[in-house]
Amino acid sequence: MKTKFIGLTGQTGAGKSTISKFAEKMDCKIINADKVAREVMKKNSECLKRLAEIFGSDIINIDGSLNRKLLAQRAFSSRENTNILNGITHPAIISKVKEYIDMYSKESGMIIFDAPQLFESGGNEMCDKIIAVIAPADVRVQRIISRDGISEQEALLRIHAQHDENFYISKSDYIIDGSQTLESVQKQFEEIMKKVMEE
Questions:
Q1: How far, in Å, CA of 185 to CA of 19, rounded?
Q2: Is the dihedral of CA 61, 64, 65, 70 positive or negative?
Q3: pLDDT (0 to 100) of residue 159
Protein backbone atom coordinates (compact mmCIF):
# COMPACT_ATOMS: atom_id res chain seq x y z
CA MET A 1 0.00 0.00 0.00
CA LYS A 2 1.34 3.44 -0.96
CA THR A 3 2.25 5.75 1.92
CA LYS A 4 -0.16 8.66 2.22
CA PHE A 5 1.41 12.11 2.57
CA ILE A 6 -0.93 14.50 4.39
CA GLY A 7 -0.39 18.24 4.67
CA LEU A 8 -1.38 19.80 8.00
CA THR A 9 -1.63 23.58 7.98
CA GLY A 10 -3.61 26.47 9.42
CA GLN A 11 -3.40 29.68 11.35
CA THR A 12 -1.02 30.28 14.22
CA GLY A 13 -2.61 29.36 17.55
CA ALA A 14 -5.37 27.29 15.93
CA GLY A 15 -4.04 23.98 17.28
CA LYS A 16 -1.77 22.34 14.69
CA SER A 17 0.69 21.02 17.26
CA THR A 18 -2.18 19.38 19.17
CA ILE A 19 -3.19 17.54 15.98
CA SER A 20 0.45 16.49 15.43
CA LYS A 21 0.48 14.90 18.89
CA PHE A 22 -2.71 12.97 18.12
CA ALA A 23 -1.18 11.84 14.80
CA GLU A 24 1.95 10.59 16.55
CA LYS A 25 -0.16 8.48 18.90
CA MET A 26 -1.78 6.96 15.79
CA ASP A 27 1.68 5.85 14.57
CA CYS A 28 1.93 8.50 11.85
CA LYS A 29 5.36 9.87 11.05
CA ILE A 30 5.55 13.65 11.52
CA ILE A 31 7.64 16.05 9.46
CA ASN A 32 7.64 19.45 11.15
CA ALA A 33 8.42 22.28 8.71
CA ASP A 34 9.74 24.57 11.47
CA LYS A 35 12.24 21.93 12.58
CA VAL A 36 13.28 21.30 8.97
CA ALA A 37 13.73 25.08 8.51
CA ARG A 38 16.10 25.16 11.49
CA GLU A 39 17.98 22.21 9.98
CA VAL A 40 18.50 23.86 6.58
CA MET A 41 19.62 27.13 8.21
CA LYS A 42 22.15 25.53 10.56
CA LYS A 43 25.80 26.55 10.88
CA ASN A 44 27.77 26.58 7.59
CA SER A 45 24.73 25.60 5.51
CA GLU A 46 24.37 26.94 1.95
CA CYS A 47 21.02 28.41 2.91
CA LEU A 48 22.52 30.41 5.79
CA LYS A 49 25.35 31.68 3.57
CA ARG A 50 22.87 32.95 0.99
CA LEU A 51 20.74 34.63 3.66
CA ALA A 52 23.85 36.40 5.03
CA GLU A 53 24.75 37.68 1.55
CA ILE A 54 21.34 39.33 1.23
CA PHE A 55 20.32 40.30 4.77
CA GLY A 56 23.81 41.10 6.14
CA SER A 57 26.64 39.04 7.58
CA ASP A 58 25.69 40.15 11.11
CA ILE A 59 22.67 37.79 11.02
CA ILE A 60 25.27 35.10 11.76
CA ASN A 61 26.32 34.99 15.42
CA ILE A 62 29.95 34.70 16.51
CA ASP A 63 29.50 30.93 16.98
CA GLY A 64 28.25 30.59 13.38
CA SER A 65 24.58 30.09 14.28
CA LEU A 66 21.71 32.18 12.94
CA ASN A 67 20.50 35.26 14.81
CA ARG A 68 16.82 34.53 14.22
CA LYS A 69 15.54 37.74 15.76
CA LEU A 70 17.71 39.95 13.54
CA LEU A 71 16.83 37.96 10.41
CA ALA A 72 13.11 38.21 11.28
CA GLN A 73 13.37 41.99 11.79
CA ARG A 74 14.90 42.44 8.34
CA ALA A 75 13.03 39.75 6.44
CA PHE A 76 9.60 40.78 7.69
CA SER A 77 10.17 44.53 7.34
CA SER A 78 8.59 44.47 3.87
CA ARG A 79 6.64 42.11 1.63
CA GLU A 80 9.55 42.18 -0.84
CA ASN A 81 12.06 41.07 1.81
CA THR A 82 9.71 38.32 3.01
CA ASN A 83 9.45 37.05 -0.56
CA ILE A 84 13.25 37.03 -0.87
CA LEU A 85 13.54 35.05 2.39
CA ASN A 86 10.92 32.53 1.21
CA GLY A 87 12.59 32.24 -2.19
CA ILE A 88 15.78 31.07 -0.48
CA THR A 89 14.38 28.96 2.36
CA HIS A 90 11.34 27.25 0.82
CA PRO A 91 13.18 25.27 -1.91
CA ALA A 92 15.77 24.12 0.68
CA ILE A 93 13.01 23.04 3.07
CA ILE A 94 11.04 21.17 0.39
CA SER A 95 14.21 19.38 -0.77
CA LYS A 96 14.90 18.22 2.82
CA VAL A 97 11.25 17.20 3.29
CA LYS A 98 11.55 14.92 0.23
CA GLU A 99 14.50 13.18 1.90
CA TYR A 100 12.36 12.57 5.01
CA ILE A 101 9.48 11.26 2.86
CA ASP A 102 11.81 8.69 1.26
CA MET A 103 13.04 7.61 4.68
CA TYR A 104 9.67 7.53 6.48
CA SER A 105 7.70 5.85 3.69
CA LYS A 106 9.66 2.68 4.45
CA GLU A 107 8.44 2.83 8.06
CA SER A 108 4.85 4.06 7.99
CA GLY A 109 1.75 4.16 5.80
CA MET A 110 0.95 7.73 6.88
CA ILE A 111 3.19 10.81 6.97
CA ILE A 112 1.92 14.14 8.31
CA PHE A 113 3.65 17.30 7.08
CA ASP A 114 3.03 19.99 9.71
CA ALA A 115 3.64 23.20 7.76
CA PRO A 116 2.27 26.69 8.53
CA GLN A 117 3.34 27.84 5.05
CA LEU A 118 2.26 24.75 3.17
CA PHE A 119 0.73 26.63 0.23
CA GLU A 120 3.31 29.43 0.10
CA SER A 121 6.17 26.91 -0.15
CA GLY A 122 4.47 24.79 -2.81
CA GLY A 123 4.52 21.85 -0.37
CA ASN A 124 0.80 21.33 -1.00
CA GLU A 125 1.64 19.95 -4.46
CA MET A 126 3.27 16.90 -2.85
CA CYS A 127 0.30 16.13 -0.59
CA ASP A 128 -2.33 13.46 -1.18
CA LYS A 129 -4.73 15.37 1.08
CA ILE A 130 -4.63 18.59 3.09
CA ILE A 131 -6.07 19.24 6.56
CA ALA A 132 -6.39 22.83 7.80
CA VAL A 133 -6.90 23.78 11.45
CA ILE A 134 -8.78 27.02 12.06
CA ALA A 135 -10.04 28.90 15.14
CA PRO A 136 -11.51 32.34 15.87
CA ALA A 137 -9.01 35.20 16.27
CA ASP A 138 -9.80 35.84 19.95
CA VAL A 139 -9.06 32.20 20.83
CA ARG A 140 -5.79 32.29 18.89
CA VAL A 141 -4.65 35.57 20.46
CA GLN A 142 -4.98 34.12 23.97
CA ARG A 143 -3.19 30.92 22.99
CA ILE A 144 -0.30 32.76 21.33
CA ILE A 145 0.12 35.08 24.35
CA SER A 146 0.29 32.15 26.79
CA ARG A 147 2.39 29.96 24.45
CA ASP A 148 5.03 32.53 23.45
CA GLY A 149 4.88 34.98 26.36
CA ILE A 150 4.29 37.99 24.10
CA SER A 151 1.96 40.98 24.26
CA GLU A 152 -1.51 41.10 22.75
CA GLN A 153 -0.26 43.59 20.17
CA GLU A 154 2.56 41.24 19.06
CA ALA A 155 0.11 38.33 18.90
CA LEU A 156 -2.25 40.38 16.70
CA LEU A 157 0.64 41.30 14.39
CA ARG A 158 1.36 37.60 13.84
CA ILE A 159 -2.29 36.88 13.18
CA HIS A 160 -2.64 39.75 10.69
CA ALA A 161 0.49 38.58 8.85
CA GLN A 162 -1.33 35.35 7.96
CA HIS A 163 -4.19 34.53 5.61
CA ASP A 164 -7.75 34.50 6.88
CA GLU A 165 -9.62 31.25 7.41
CA ASN A 166 -11.34 31.42 3.99
CA PHE A 167 -7.92 31.01 2.34
CA TYR A 168 -7.38 27.70 4.18
CA ILE A 169 -10.98 26.51 3.78
CA SER A 170 -10.91 27.04 0.01
CA LYS A 171 -7.61 25.21 -0.50
CA SER A 172 -7.93 22.26 1.92
CA ASP A 173 -9.68 18.89 1.71
CA TYR A 174 -10.60 18.77 5.39
CA ILE A 175 -11.14 21.42 8.07
CA ILE A 176 -10.74 20.98 11.83
CA ASP A 177 -12.22 23.50 14.26
CA GLY A 178 -9.37 23.88 16.73
CA SER A 179 -11.42 25.99 19.17
CA GLN A 180 -13.41 22.94 20.32
CA THR A 181 -12.57 20.75 23.33
CA LEU A 182 -9.56 18.43 23.08
CA GLU A 183 -11.91 15.43 22.86
CA SER A 184 -13.84 17.03 19.99
CA VAL A 185 -10.65 18.00 18.12
CA GLN A 186 -9.30 14.47 18.49
CA LYS A 187 -12.60 13.01 17.25
CA GLN A 188 -12.60 15.33 14.21
CA PHE A 189 -9.04 14.27 13.38
CA GLU A 190 -9.71 10.54 13.84
CA GLU A 191 -12.75 10.72 11.54
CA ILE A 192 -10.70 12.48 8.85
CA MET A 193 -7.90 9.91 9.12
CA LYS A 194 -10.41 7.10 8.75
CA LYS A 195 -11.71 8.67 5.53
CA VAL A 196 -8.18 9.23 4.21
CA MET A 197 -7.23 5.60 4.87
CA GLU A 198 -10.35 4.37 3.06
CA GLU A 199 -9.66 6.44 -0.07
A1: 8
A2: positive
A3: 86
Going by their DSSP bridges, the two strands 129-134 and 174-177 should be labelled as parallel
pTM, two decimals, is 0.89
Q: Where are the alpha helices (DSSP H) in 56-181?
A: 68-75, 79-104, 137-148, 152-160, 165-171
pLDDT digits (tens, 9 = 90+) for 17-55: 999 999 999 999 999 999 999 999 999 999 999 999 999
Q: How far apart are CA 195 and CA 177, in angstroms?
A: 17
Q: What H or E segment, with its residue span, contains residue 62?
A: none
Q: How far apart are CA 131 and CA 185, in angstroms?
A: 12
- Identify the CA nearest to 185 among candidates 177, 195, 197, 174: 177
Phi, psi of 177 (to 5 degrees): -85, 100
Maximum pairwise Cα distance, the chain: 52
Task: State CA 139 to chain mean position distance.
Answer: 19
